[in-house]
Design brief:
One of its GO terms (molecular function) is ATP binding. The chain has 13 helices and five strands. By secondary structure, it is of the alpha/beta class.
């Protein structure tokens, strides 16, 4: 399978990030959107010409992530890894070390993993914003794929981080008019077919081989049991929902021909 890698569209999103970066005071962006929509690629493109500490959180727990971030920060400053035991100590270390007259971008990608595993994380980052970063030349970006968790932990009125951000952005699938740039040689009807199957999700579009027919691509990308997309629906439901079984049963009923609410209920 050919997987083409392209960065297309996102002009408005890049312009927003650059405005935040070029502001003369501390900036704090919350970036969220469904998985595979291109958030990390957007951030990577934005970071190309800027000093940055990029950290991708994982699900191993608070302490392992803390120690990995500590190591990342020390590597950025070409320093020995300091003995720091809390996130606020790590950010205090970064603040102390950064003495240049331009902004340092600090990205915590998949912040939702941290917040999901530790309820205190939003409060910890409130302290980091208010008492450590706010007076310095920093652009903090918290990014996450679990839309519900990002809204709960960073955007909702109940979050300790509410009111701290200087901007937020939900990264959405790209528009139909930009799909042609992925497949410049394809006729319009083929692009309509591809869009019908993959929507505007860049990760999905990258799996379509322009040298094969639409139906060959469907077989290779969606219906082959070893293909990434074969289990994508179930994976997304498990990522976003605590109890996905009910929704899986509803989708199964629809796949078997149920169309009316009563039919769906009786078959699920």
């Amino acid at each position: 399978m050919i997987m083409l890698r392209k960065f297309i569209d996102r002009d408005e999103e890049r312009a927003y990030l650059n405005r935040e970066y070029l502001s003369e005071s501390f900036s704090f962006s919350v970036i969220y959107g469904r998985r595979r929509v291109g958030k990390t690629e957007l951030i990577s493109n934005f970071l190309k010409d800027k000093p940055n500490i990029y950290f991708l959180a994982d699900k191993r727990g608070t302490k392992p992530n803390l120690f990995r971030l500590r190591k990342k920060a020390a590597e950025f400053f070409n320093d020995f890894e300091p003995n720091l035991e809390t996130f606020d100590e790590v950010f205090e270390y970064i603040k102390t070390k950064w003495n240049k007259r331009q902004k340092l971008v600090i990205v915590i990608d998949e912040f939702s993993y941290l917040a999901q595993m530790d309820d205190s994380i939003p409060s910890v980052f409130q302290l980091i914003v208010d008492e450590i970063l706010k007076a310095g030349l920093f652009h903090l970006i918290l990014c996450g794929s679990s839309v519900s968790m990002m809204e709960k932990s960073t955007l909702s009125h109940s979050s300790p981080l509410y009111g701290r951000r200087t901007g937020q952005m939900q990264v959405k699938p790209i528009l139909f008019r930009h799909i042609r740039k992925f497949f410049p040689e394809q006729p319009l009807h083929e692009i309509v077919n591809i869009y019908g199957a993959a929507g505007g999700v860049p990760f999905y579009l990258l799996f379509f081989d322009p040298n094969k027919s639409y139906y060959e691509n469907l077989q290779n990308v969606f219906f082959a049991k070893e293909a990434v997309m074969y289990a994508e629906g179930e994976f997304l439901l498990r990522e976003e929902l605590k109890e996905p079984a009910t929704f899986m049963n509803i989708l199964y009923a629809i796949s078997k021909g149920a169309a009316r609410p009563g039919e769906i209920a009786s078959k699920s």
